[in-house]
């Protein structure tokens, strides 16, 4: 058995603040990692730290860019177990999205917020991407369509375990000191 790690955050960016105003959710962004070192962390997000666009599938490091600038942001790390084969399928899905140069679906956020299923070719928003990574395992029941997924929905998945709650800066230091989250 292997694990996949979900990283749920809430920062002080305009988009995060707007989503939080509408949803009152504890988390407004989601990422995932396929190893306990949380290296790399994958998501769909901004290319440049201070600009919302362009945005695409990316690796999100802790020691530079967005997470470094928003190191005071709230973060929760959660894990789910999958078989070795399910883990391989998830990595394949992630690799395919990088090959396709998956873009950010800003209108997908709008439709998701209105509970309208809308998919775009080669575009996803963060929680849709992470839900599709989990779905690719073939083993995790994500409970609803990825195009309707909010970051808080991950906490409803059967078998999810809370690993860490805190701030990004403390998580980064913990990983630096210990090498892995567990």
Q: Secondary-structure blueprint of this entry?
A:
Elements: E1 2-10, H1 14-23, E2 29-33, E3 42-46, E4 55-59, H2 65-69, E5 74-82, H3 84-100, E6 103-104, H4 106-113, E7 123-124, H5 126-136, E8 161-167, H6 168-178
Parallel strand pairs: 6-7
Antiparallel strand pairs: 1-2, 1-5, 3-4, 5-8
Helix pairs in contact: 3-5
Name the CATH superfamily assignment: endopeptidase domain like (from Nostoc punctiforme)
Question: What is Rg?
Answer: 15 Å
Q: Count of DSSP E strands?
A: 8
Helix- and strand-based class? alpha+beta
Our count of helices gives 6
Descriptive report:
The chain is of the alpha+beta class. It has a single domain, classed as endopeptidase domain like (from Nostoc punctiforme) (endopeptidase fold (from Nostoc punctiforme), Alpha-Beta Complex). Helices cover 34% and strands 24% of the residues. The strands form three sheets. A four-stranded antiparallel β-sheet has the order 2-1-5-8. A hairpin with an 8-residue loop joins strand 3 and strand 4. The longest helix has 17 residues. It is globular and about 45 Å long. The model has no long low-confidence stretch (mean pLDDT 88).
Short synopsis of the structure:
The chain is α+β, with helices and mostly antiparallel strands and 182 residues long. It has helices spanning 14-23, 65-69, 84-100, 106-113, 126-136, 168-178; strands spanning 2-10, 29-33, 42-46, 55-59, 74-82, 103-104, 123-124, 161-167.
